[in-house]
């Protein structure tokens, strides 16, 4: 099992253990901050993790992407800098200290996460 540290910009979000790999990798995350704390010192990221978890729950229940988009479009706007990242802000660092640029990860219930290496940086 591979281990990584997940970052957005300089913020260490957590430690990941990869449990599955296919087109996307998935695994378990141990957060470096309590995203459920009120108020959180990382409020934007905490809100985004909660939003992402809710999205993954709804998609798992069969809610279509279009319906999901319409119902959450307003809330999603505040996370556009996190979701539509055209820079290299999302990345993981492996056990050797090597940095890999990734697309915005998807956070799930039970401290699970899915991510994919950004194809622009292979």
TrEMBL record:
Domain of life: Bacteria
Protein name as catalogued: Uncharacterized protein
Natural source organism: Flavobacterium crocinum
